[in-house]
Amino acid sequence: MGAQWKAKHKDIAANAKGRLFGKLVKEIVVAARNGADPASNARLRLVVEQARKVSMPKDTLDRAIKKGAGLTGESVHYEHVIYEGFAPHRVAVMVECLTDNVNRTAPEMRVLFRKGQLGTSGSVSWDFDHVGMIEAEPAKPDADPEVAAIEAGAQDFEPAGEDHPAVFLTDPTDLDLVSRALPAQGFTVLSAKLGYKPKNPVDPASLSAEALEEVESFLAAIDANDDVQNVFVGLAG
């Protein structure tokens, strides 16, 4: 959960695929500013691979690349903005947004944070490490994540759990290099992106069931906002 919060409940995740496509389209548009060819644009290649893995329609993918590269005549500009603060019960949160209108997004974030506390820039980011995060699953039964992490050049890894794949952590500049190296170590890369890992995560067991539910509800409301790309939370597990 600390690496990147994801909705767990079926009712919350009902339109997850549509929202995922929307988020990936924004990522593709932004990445394609540096060139429409994934072979020479590492950031675009990583997002395109992720889009293909979740079966994004080819027309949608191609249109997003052309739009970002300025080949359609459309003028679109997404600004990268991070909001920092606390969920209920002082759980640190970093919210990563891509927005075409900060004047819309900022007041929406202020409203969403009313059940927690919206902080200023740097108020919680000091307690997170900026890292590359690669989700991957074994392509063969004997694939060892620890060996794969060492051989591929990752800094660390988090083993797979019941509801999430293994996560390989890298220096931000090594994200593409490690994601290219993992398949040779028996792992299939599911996603690769830059993110924030908490240094001192709160143990969910230290919160009551009611308190944890309040945190989950707060995070679900944040994640449902159309401008939100990723939510990084200071919770362990």
Automatic annotation (TrEMBL):
<keyword id="KW-0238">DNA-binding</keyword>
<keyword id="KW-0804">Transcription</keyword>
<dbReference type="InterPro" id="IPR002876">
    <property type="entry name" value="Transcrip_reg_TACO1-like"/>
</dbReference>
<keyword id="KW-0805">Transcription regulation</keyword>
<dbReference type="InterPro" id="IPR049083">
    <property type="entry name" value="TACO1_YebC_N"/>
</dbReference>
<dbReference type="InterPro" id="IPR029072">
    <property type="entry name" value="YebC-like"/>
</dbReference>
<feature type="domain" description="TACO1/YebC-like second and third">
    <location>
        <begin position="78"/>
        <end position="232"/>
    </location>
</feature>
<feature type="domain" description="TACO1/YebC-like N-terminal">
    <location>
        <begin position="5"/>
        <end position="70"/>
    </location>
</feature>
<keyword id="KW-0963">Cytoplasm</keyword>
<comment type="similarity">
    <text>Belongs to the TACO1 family.</text>
</comment>
<dbReference type="InterPro" id="IPR017856">
    <property type="entry name" value="Integrase-like_N"/>
</dbReference>
<protein>
    <recommendedName>
        <fullName>Probable transcriptional regulatory protein EJP69_27315</fullName>
    </recommendedName>
</protein>
<dbReference type="Pfam" id="PF20772">
    <property type="entry name" value="TACO1_YebC_N"/>
</dbReference>
<dbReference type="Pfam" id="PF01709">
    <property type="entry name" value="Transcrip_reg"/>
</dbReference>
<dbReference type="InterPro" id="IPR026564">
    <property type="entry name" value="Transcrip_reg_TACO1-like_dom3"/>
</dbReference>
<dbReference type="GO" id="GO:0006355">
    <property type="term" value="P:regulation of DNA-templated transcription"/>
</dbReference>
<dbReference type="InterPro" id="IPR048300">
    <property type="entry name" value="TACO1_YebC-like_2nd/3rd_dom"/>
</dbReference>
<dbReference type="GO" id="GO:0003677">
    <property type="term" value="F:DNA binding"/>
</dbReference>
<dbReference type="GO" id="GO:0005737">
    <property type="term" value="C:cytoplasm"/>
</dbReference>
